[in-house]
Amino acid sequence: MQLGDVSLEKVNTSLYGFAGEVVHPRGMVSLPLMMGVGVTHKTCMLKFLVVDVPSAYNVILGRPTLNAFQAVISTYHMKIKFPTPGRVGEVQGDPLQSRKCYVEAVRKGQKRTSDEAHKGVPPSKKGKDTCAEEAPRGTGALAKVQPAEELLNIKIIPGHPNKTTRISSQMSEETKGRNSPMFATQRPSIKPVKQKKRHFELEKDKIIQAEVDKLMAAGHIEEIQFPEWLSNVVLMPKPGGKWRICIDFRDHNKACPKDFYPLPLIDQLVDSTSGWELLSMMDVSQGYHQIMLAPEDRKKVSFITSTGTFCYVAMPFGLKNAGATYQRLVDKIFRPQIGRNVEVYVDDMLKLNPTKCAFGVRGGRFLGFMVTLTGIKANPLKIKAILDMEAPTCVNEVQGLTGRIAALSRFISKAAKKSLPFFKVLRKAKTFEWDAPCQQAFEELKSYLAGLPLLVKPFPGDTLYLYLSATS
């Protein structure tokens, strides 16, 4: 504001954030603040604390300002009203400017947020570790949930006496049998297939063996001598130069009938989770591996490595019906709560991964969207991915651009029209040409993304407008 330090009054007061972070002001300055225009304007002398922190906002007004103006604020209407000698004055917010500030805040806070997410949280006074990622702020110790009846310890993995869990002593034998195994169903008319072993270089063999040792130690696989089906290991590259270990179950999946159990619609899940004051985000640790296979079906999900043949004891990833089986299970577990205070999607429940959980937050990322009390926002990372892009120089980069646009299509009006120049480039894949219309559409897209709308879920009884588009 070009006032200089000479205008600052010294203060000994520190500012404390919600999580306890401390900001030391450089000083205090008294300035006149005018709200409104014409006969409805009002001016008050106010004291402002000056801080040196990165922010998309020049001034933040708090309760002292609202009290001085006797103002009433409506965040829903983006409007402030206050009494004046003439009549009621008002200040109307600018939605476009607000969205630009939001995007700018995302840009400024992106690196700081990323750094904090990887630093972790020091141990608490009691010596227990807290969650490093999105730990709940301002919460005390939570009392452990204790069952109110006698429990029985049962083994969940044969041959591993230390792998146990507890169930109700009142559970019937029928219920035990119904909830114990998952069957690897297949068509009896199809003959088993044993794939010929694939050979890997020494370094990849070491990676595969390390994963096998890890699964053996966890009790998820065991050695087998006479498998019915036999599949190969597949290595898939991951970001950061790492590898994901998968099993080639393609032959097995051809023999399995399709389980048509429906998965929830992502848009409906996102709509149902927005508008709540507090949310708890829970992520599973190796969710599929918490479902045990029936002993007679384990030899059907076997694989081969350079050191031997193994079969899964728990449900593996890659099976044709694994997703439907898992979704059916969690739907049964949470059926009384789904739609009321819980939403579940594929692997977002069961055994929790504490480093990926956040309890009592006011918003967060859910299935690729930012869900908050006020509505549904686009994921800032997906916005940033396009804003940081240079103009494509080949077909693959154009395909990447259209894929990123598709991920944000719910927030982009007339997304197909805005993407048309890019699809024209893809039609001429043999002669790549990024012409002036493409560059103009690219720049207009970036400008549009700087002001994406905040979506709200539809409420029962509201009037909905249907927009139709037709071409010749």
UniProtKB/TrEMBL annotation:
Biased composition (Basic and acidic residues): 108-119, 126-136
Lineage: Eukaryota, Viridiplantae, Streptophyta, Embryophyta, Tracheophyta
Alphabetized PANTHER family for the sequence: RNA-DIRECTED DNA POLYMERASE, TRANSPOSON TY3-I GAG-POL POLYPROTEIN
Entries under InterPro entries matching the protein: DNA/RNA_pol_sf, Rev_trsase/Diguanyl_cyclase, RNA-dir_DNA_polymerase, RT_dom
Feature: compositional bias, Polar residues: 162-172
Chain residue ranges for the region called Disordered: 108-140, 162-196
Domain Reverse transcriptase, first and last residues per copy: 237-358
One Pfam family this sequence matches: RVT_1
Annotated protein name in UniProt: Pro-Pol polyprotein
